[in-house]
Design goal:
The chain is α/β, with parallel strands linked by helices. The chain has two domains: 163 residues, Roll (Urease, subunit C, domain 1), CATH 2.30.40.10; 319 residues, TIM Barrel (Alpha-Beta Barrel), CATH 3.20.20. The protein contains 18 helices and 19 strands. Strands 1, 2, 3, 4, 5, 15, 18 and 19 form an eight-stranded mixed sheet that branches. The longest helix has 23 residues.
């Protein structure tokens, strides 16, 4: 089809929308048109377009190709009518990003931090859904309700409370029943013994609760996740552990797991101790048992390059002082373990990442389901920014950007059990979409809300960033959200 015909068709469609104005940020309109977009779906297929996306209330009503076939039928269909229009010419539209490992936090280290700060950054980064793993359950359920009803500018929330302690199987089953009655969407387990894990997972399957396992140095590992039917393994502990021939890592006699400098220093040695042949069997077992993997590659990056982590460019304007204080080395704060961190530690962690990334590639090659989360609010990672950084690290691991976007959208929807509703740009799916100023397949950095600098026609220009985040049919103007974040941070620093 000729370029002239494409331009004519685009003009015809936009004219048919009665040249509706852009929507008001935070206000749902009955019928919203995203016009002339290049679309990257969450199913792993290449970008295609231009297309018109019609949203009615909170649902994608139609995705209309503006190609040769559509042009030949232009006189056969009525022009798109809309109450508001987002002109996406030259922009890319993706499904809303899903953060499968997030924490709702209103304090750090016992000091208050406004929830609005975190929620606004998530939305401005294009995150329309989070899986909250282990926050205050009552508060998380309140936020989930407010988000669902459009009372709060926030991603949709899936609540996975921390399982906590149980002394025996009966207590484990009772705890699962209690969480189900409270309205939880799933359960997060951590530091759990094998008999307790067997009982709680059996009960969770009976009542339909999914399970995220943050494995640690503990009795259970990936073999137990495979046997009992865990939904996803978080981070990476538990996988290489299951492939160590001796059954235990070679810790020094002075090692204390509760000393986080010890814990994370020797975590950097773990992957090299895994037997490759045994690791292959572990990965095959995970694939066969449908155990997904949410690696959170961003959250340990400071361990391999502390200076980079401490000097991220968005800290200057967007790092809240409460969070900055929490990040500083302090044994009282989880993840603030960099007291006496050495160049040798960083070298071990660089090797750890190489082997970790190779295992991820192999897991994918064997048919495994890989998701994505950022675990932000710890270890120099800011909300939202950490998820984009995870996407960059997945590219470093060897994944194509098309695959990476699928991991952060369609794959995460599968982990949540929401693949029939979320993670696609498709008619009938929830209207969770982002409009991006740039091509993320060319440069994932265009997703950062701080934008990027580049040369165009010999001149330096600032571009990139998500322009609109549409969550549940409600459009949010991302630059406006980040302006508010900047204001929150500035006011907090003055105080």
């Amino acid at each position: 089809m000729s370029r002239i015909l494409l331009v004519f068709l685009a003009a015809l469609t936009l004219a048919g929308s009665t040249m509706a104005q852009a929507p008001a940020s935070g206000k749902r309109v009955r019928r919203l048109l995203i016009h002339n977009a290049i679309v990257i779906d969450g199913n792993g297929t290449p970008a295609s377009g231009p297309k018109d996306i019609v949203i009615e209330n909170n649902t994608i009503a139609d995705v209309i190709p503006l190609d040769a076939v559509a042009a030949s039928r232009a006189g056969m269909r009525a022009p798109v009518q809309a109450d508001a229009t987002i002109d996406a010419t030259g922009k890319y539209v993706l499904p809303g990003l899903i953060n499968a490992h997030a924490h709702l936090q209103e304090e750090r280290g016992g000091k208050p931090q406004p929830l609005e700060y975190e929620l606004n950054i998530w939305l401005a980064c294009g995150i329309t859904t989070i899986r909250d793993v282990g926050s205050d359950t009552k508060r998380a359920l309140e936020i989930r309700k407010q988000s669902a009803e459009g009372e709060l500018a926030a991603p949709r929330v899936f609540v996975y409370p921390m399982f906590g302690r149980a002394r025996n199987a009966a207590e484990a089953r009772a705890r699962v029943q209690s969480l189900k009655q409270q309205g939880a969407d799933g359960i997060k387990i951590l530091g759990i013994d094998r008999d307790i894990m067997a009982a709680m997972e059996d009960e969770a399957h009976k009542v339909g609760l999914r399970i995220a396992h943050h494995a640690g140095v503990e009795e259970t590992n990936a073999w137990d996740d495979i046997k009992f039917g865990t939904t996803s393994i978080e981070h990476w502990y538990g996988i290489p552990d299951a492939a160590i021939e001796s059954g235990v890592q070679g810790f020094p006699s002075t090692y204390n797991y509760n000393n986080e400098t010890d814990r994370f220093r020797y975590a950097g040695h773990l992957w090299r101790e895994a037997n490759p042949e045994r690791l292959g069997k572990v990965l095959d077992g995970m694939v066969q048992a449908h155990v997904a993997w949410v690696p959170t590659l961003d959250i340990y990056e400071a361990s391999r390059d502390l200076e980079r982590a401490q000097n991220q460019p968005w800290f200057a304007e967007y790092l809240h002082p409460t969070l900055a204080e929490y990040f500083r080395p302090n044994p009282a704060n989880h993840g603030s373990y960099f007291l006496g961190w050495t160049s040798t530690d960083e070298v071990f962690w660089k090797e750890n990442y190489r082997l970790w990334m190779a295992a991820l590639r192999e897991f994918d090659r064997r048919g495994g389901l890989i998701g994505m989360g950022d675990d932000a609010g710890f270890i120099y990672q800011m909300y939202g920014f950490g998820l984009i950084r995870s996407m960059e690290l997945h590219q470093e691991a060897g994944f194509h950007p098309i695959k990476i976007i699928q991991q952060a959208t369609g794959n995460n929807a599968k982990i949540l059990g929401q693949e029939e509703k979320l993670g696609r740009v498709r008619a009938g799916f929830a209207a969770d979409l982002i409009v991006v100023n740039g091509n993320p397949l060319e440069n994932l950095k265009v997703l950062y809300p701080s934008g990027i600098d580049e040369i165009r026609d010999g001149k330096q220009v600032h571009t990139g960033g998500v322009e609109w985040t549409i969550k549940d049919g409600i459009p949010y103007h991302a630059p406006t959200l980040m302006a508010r974040v900047k204001e929150i941070v500035a006011q907090a620093r003055k105080r």
